[in-house]
Structure formats: C-alpha cells, structure tokens
Amino acid sequence: MGAILKLEKLSRYFAGLAAVKEVSLDLEEGGLFGLIGPNGAGKTTLLSIIAGSLKPTSGKITFKGRDLTGAKSFKAVQAGIARTHQVPKPFRTLSVLENVEVGLRFGGSQRSGNDAKDAMQVLELVGIAHRQHSPASMLSVGDMKRMELARALAARPTLLLCDEVCSGLTESETEQILSLLRNIRKAGTTILYVEHNLKAIMSVCDHVIVMNYGQKLIEGSPQTVRSDASVIEAYIGKKAAQ
Amino acid sequence: MSEAATDKGNLFPLLAKAAPLLLAVIAVAFIPAAHPSPNIIRLMFVTLVWVTTSVAWNLIGGFAGQVSFGFAVFYGLGAYTTAITYSTGVDRFDSILLGACAAMLASLLVGLPTFRLKGPYFAIATIGVSEAVRVIMTNLGFTGGASGYRIMERGPFNQLLHYYIALALAATAIALSMLVRYSKFGLALLAIREDEEAASDLGVNPFRTKLLAHALAAALTGAAGGVFVGYAAFIYPQGVFGFDISVAILLMPIIGGLGTVWGPPIGAAVYGFVHEELIASFPQFHLLLFGSLLILIILFEPAGVMGLAYKVVGLFRRRK
Predict the structure, then answer these.
(1) Which of A150, B5, B175, B309 is the most buried (most CB within 10 A)?
(2) A159-192: per-residue pLDDT in tens?
(3) Angle, CA B288 vertex, CA B282 and CA B291 arms, to 5°
(4) Could you give the domains of chain B?
(5) Among A113, A128, A155, residue at a domain's last position
(6) At B142, is the pLDDT very low, low, confident or very high (cuts 50, 70, 90)?
(7) Considering the entire predicted model, what is its pTM?
C-alpha cells in the first residue's frame, strides 16, 4: 500500500521561532504510527498543521494524492483527516449524542442515512452509550476523552490524529483505549498517535517517529527507536545517557 | 432535544413543537375581536415588532453566541428603505421585502471582515458600524437628515392591517427560529457557540455558517423595521438607528432566555409591556431600571425567563 499522507519539509514558525522545522514524513495506509518526543518538541503543532488548525509557514501536505497544504480544518476533516485534542474541547451545553452528531453530519462524506443509529454505534464503540443524554459538561475526564474520540470517529476519517488520548486516564482505562485504537486500525483507518506515555506507544504502534526541537530525530520500529542513543539523550539528557 | 435533530421521518415531534406557535398565533389573532382600546392594539403591534427583532437577534446572538450591539442598523435600514420605496409608489409588501434585502446586504458588510476572526472583534465592529451609520443618516440629504423622513400615506390608516402584518412577520420569525434550532444548520450554530475551533475540526465551516445566520437575522430585523414604518407616519435617525434600539433588541432575548426558541418572544413581550409602564411612570429612569434588571438576570438567572420556568417545573416534579 502507498503513502496516505506525505509531508514535505513542513515548517511552522512562531515569531521567528521554529516550532516545527522541515519535517518530512510518509505515512503508509493502514498503519498505526506513534509520534513521541520531549515537551515542546512540536508534536501537537505538527498534528495541528496536518489537521488544518494551523497553517504551515512552508512545506507541502499531500493526502491521498491531493494537495492539502493550508486547507482549513473543516476541509481537512471532509477530506478524511479527523483529530482529537489533548485537552478535550466538548460542546458543553449539548448532549453527548449531539456532540457526536456534529462530527457525523458535517465530517466525512459517506453517510449511512441513519444518523441516530450511527451516532449510537460510535458511542457504544467507545463505551459511553449510557451517557448519551447527559450534557457534555457533566462527563468525567475519562468519558470526556472518550467523547472526544467518538466525535472524531463519527466524522469517518481515513486518517485519525490522536493527541494524548490516554493522558489523565487510569491504567485500565488506558488499556481499553489502546485496544480500541487497535480495532479502529484493523477496520482500515490509518492512525497517527501522539503520546507522552512511552509504554502505551511502544505497545500499540508498529512504527514510531521521534521529534525533538521541532525536527524529526529518527523513525523506525519501537525496538530500534528504544535503543537509539539520540532518543535516550533527547529524553533524559546527554550526561545521564553516557 | 437530540432525538428531534435526528428523527427526520417522524412528523409527530415537529407538530408537537409547532403546536404552541399555532395556539399563540390564533390567540393573538383573536384579541381584536374583544374590542380592546386602540392603545392596547398599538402596544400589541409594537410588541409584535419587538418579538421579530428579538427572535432575529437570538439566531446569531443566542444560537451562535455572536453578540451584536448593532441591530439598529438593520432595523433602521429596513425602516428607511421601506419608507422611501413605499413613498415613491412601491407596493407595501414589496417595500418591506426591499427593506429586508437592504438590511441583509448591510449584514454582509459587517460580517465579511469580522467573522473570519475569532474573539470579540465582531461585537466591537457592530458598535462602530452602528454609530457610523447613525451619523451618516443624520447628515444624509435625501432622507431628510436629522429632521427625519415623512412617509406618504396612500390610503386611510387601518390599524388592524398593521397589527396582522406584524403578527404574520412575528409568527414567520418564530417558525424560522424553530426550523433553524432543529436543523443541521442549527446544530452547526450551537457547536460554533460552544467551541468554534472544535466545530471546525468536525467539518463545520464557521465563517459561512455565521454569515448566513447573521444575514437571516438582519433580513428579519429589516422587515420588522419596515413593518414599523407602516404604522409610523414619520421616522428619524435617532428613533430607528439609536444605540438604545440596539440595546433594546439584545436585551429582550436575554430577558427571555438566550439560545431558546421561546425565550426571545417571551422576553419581547415582557419588555414591550414593562417598557410601556416604566416610560409612563419614570420617563427619566426607565433605562436605569432596565440596566439594573439586566444585571440581576445575568447574576441570578442567566437563562432568563425560560430558565426560571424550567426551574419552577423542576421543583414541582421533584415534589411528586
């Protein structure tokens, strides 16, 4: 299978400071990719650029052979790229079901014609079907994260960008989300997963990309990345690594 | 609430929602049959005009959360356009329609540059535009400038005709507001109000959606201005473009309950009658009293009369 997403020398500067610097990347269709790096490495910025929330300063984004550079986020999601936010951004006064309906009715292209059924299906998938009528503001942190994921899934993405879906969750909740990601990937969706939790990333991804200071440091299988000296250095410092 | 948004094939919930509107329209339509004094009919007419502007403001201010301090621009443009075209021989209904169109065009002038921006820019721009338009209209020659414009009446004055035109427009506004609230378009507006970035991330085009809601609100407000002109023999800039008109238009939906279908008409009714009483008893202090009322509402019942009503209903249910 070919690359579903191709990034060429993507950069984003904030007031002269490079948050993302000349990142080139190919994501193979159907893969589950991990994106890791220390705080401030530019992971979320890169995700936001791909999702269309931020415009790149330079570089090119090609998605399914289509130039998507600088496309607004609603265009990106209609093309098939959906994202979740590190800090959930719920529609607080709307019900959980209505939150999901927004993704369902405005997101992707093909709809089954039965929105109510589809919305419930997504809620069941992430395990918050019993909260469908609650206002989103009443959800716990864990359920809020699940709803964030459900909304993105409702948009029927072919590329799902997950920003720390497991931060703040207990170990068993994390395990549930990870197995959910595995299933989503099995169903054919490509996933780019940003995570602080290295254990989670290493257990679920088959390919890991490491960023530091806005640049791509290295990429490869979890084993290669784990034993790479530059990665250890980036994470725990030069002295300790020696 | 959410089922109605999804159950497209089911007609019953839609009928159940439209029933209160039908009953209200019938009730208001039969009030003249009781032969109330012309002054009551006048008060009802003005209130129905306010119902339209209040419901219109709520489309963009309540559903989409985009607060505007400049709806007098649309009201005034609608009024002047209707007045001038009617006086030059255009049919009454067509002149109101032209008033609505003029207001809609003006809404694009405000919306196009500001709706691309996030944050309070739209609200700030509406204040600037509304003052600018008032000053221009005060100094414009062919509309009579500050001394105002006298409308050419082409037949005997029929109070009830205007009453029913105002009722038809108010009912149309509420019906539209209902359709918007339970449509895909309405869902987009609510999503934008709650979190514009998240809405965009899920496929909503915030710019286009806000522009459309603003245009619809402006058209209704312009038509309301046009309907008012039918009743008034004379209009002047401070009367229809004044900042107090803008404030009144945004006050009513807040009193009634922002972002609901029935809050804005209720708020307009409350405002219409209270305003009349206050202005008669305290001509100098009525704005001060309304200001205090607004502060109290925001502090203690941000959901307005509708919020209060839901709380009372909730209390009774708990007792059972």
Answers:
(1) A150
(2) 999 999 888 888 888 999 999 999 999 999 999 9
(3) 135
(4) 2-248 (1.10.3470)
(5) A155
(6) confident
(7) 0.91
